[in-house]
Amino acid sequence: MIEIESLSRKWKNFALDELSLKVESGEYFVILGPTGAGKTLLLELIAGFHVPDSGRVLVDGKEVTNLPPEKHNLAFVYQNYSLFPHMSVKKNIEFGMRMKKIRDPKRVLDTARDLKITHLLDRNPLTLSGGEQQRVALARALVTDPKILLLDEPLSALDPRTQENARELLSFLHKKNKLTVLHITHDQTEARIMADRIAVIMDGKLMQVGTPEEIFEKPVEGQVASFVGFENVLKGRVVSADQGFLRIKTGEVVIDASGDMEAGDQVYAFLRPENIALSKTSTQSSIRNSLQGRVTEIWVLGALVRVKVDCGVPLNVLITRQSAEEMEISPGIQVYAQFKASSVHVLR
Amino acid sequence: MTFVFSLILLVLFIFIFLTLSNMIFGQLLGDFSGLVKAAGNRSVMGAIFLSLYAGFLATLLALLLGAPTGYILARFDFPGKRLVESIIDVPVVVPHTVAGIALLTVFGSRGLIGGPLEAYIQFRDALPGIVVAMLFVSLPYLANSAREGFKSVDPRLENAARSLGAPLWKAFFFVTLPLSARHLLIGAVMTWARAISEFGAVVIIAYYPMIGPTLIYDRFLSYGLSASRPIAVLLILVTLSIFLVIRVISAGWSIYDRD
Fold it and tell me: Which residue of A117, A207, B12, B183 has the fewest C-beta atoms within 10 A of its own C-beta?
């Protein structure tokens, strides 16, 4: 278990601000945030590479705030894996055992077998692929049997195919070794797939902690909502509220949504681009919102097309390329942007 | 532009090569017996050996002082860091006779350090004086090379070592030091080369016992060029041979560099 209590640290022009967090034993906990949010600094503070200006770090109930890194009993894997280039793979894996005076050559082989790197033991780390380096770094970190594993953007240097294998490997190791994993990433998909719980950090501040569903479906802050994919942010005012059913005036239009606000409240309505459909006619259906507008820009993104529609308020819409072709979407044409009231996430 | 730069490179090469080769080949072809005679002279070989030995001691001391200094400058930011870096570079820009006078005021028999230590160690006209003079003028080469070497080692490698259970000193000796060894070796060779070639500072604090450059100067003043040139050629040949050996040995060390 890792407990962080009111942790603050200034670093050049950046500051982590009064951050508190608790990671339960055996949990796969992901810290999610954009680049420059302070994720790596937080991880390095937990590992003891820096001393905080204030606050405490506890590992399994024991305070380690001012202890040197080697006394924290945490395994740490950096984004670039930081393998020692002057040692063979085997010597890299043995390094932690040498430092902790563990004499058990079988353990190196067992760990190498678990991570499928026995054929790499005599190689120099500089000659390995990204995926192989990651396996070696994990073997080096896990060979001394730590209970807590800290991962700094472990998948970001890998190609998509290798990322998939690495995700499976991390899940396997988490379960097999009953590890508590603290994994930091800027990748929302990675966080959603891997995490038991997620903490969102932005500008050195903890914004929200929750399950992946809570973070991605019910963000509590506008900044978090924007970061987790609610690209359309509409500022407005609740004109009527009836048992959770809201009518919100934003720009020149009124949209339907749900929430526990009251009439007169100033609110922000968040909407994912993939939750908006485009149609050439305003069809009768259960969809509450159908806004007429004009296509202003389109971008083809492989199988998907991003369309910008001016409905009195600007909306970003994501549709398939096939739909765009069938509807002959092009700048200037009139369309209806349609979305359910339940797709609108409303925050004060 | 490449052509012009290549021409400039050629001029530079000819300038260095012509100056040294003219002296060396002039001696080898014109007066080989004079070289053999110098090589058989005890005082000449003693002076050359003393140059090499004192230079070696100065380099050892420079490693002991310069490597930790380089590490601190590479890894930490602190108020006045730029001033410290500038002060470390001062011996390079101070005229070496001035350095000799300054050293004499500190290490002379009435100096700040030489005075209290006089009963235990003699600097004036003694080996320790030669070593401190050599150390003073050559230390910046080692400190700067060590700093660049330690800077080239990713601090995350040290962090990784520490998370694996290594205390700071073990992370330094098992990870940082091997990875910056080539920089340290280059710095040590440069330091030694600078120490061996030092004359101005040494001659003021310790004219005796004579090192190679002092003996060359002494013979030149007393007997002229023909008496001093064989010693100069001998000193060059001995030091060049040693540097060549070190260069060959250290060539393979490049695999330890980060990139």
Answer: B12
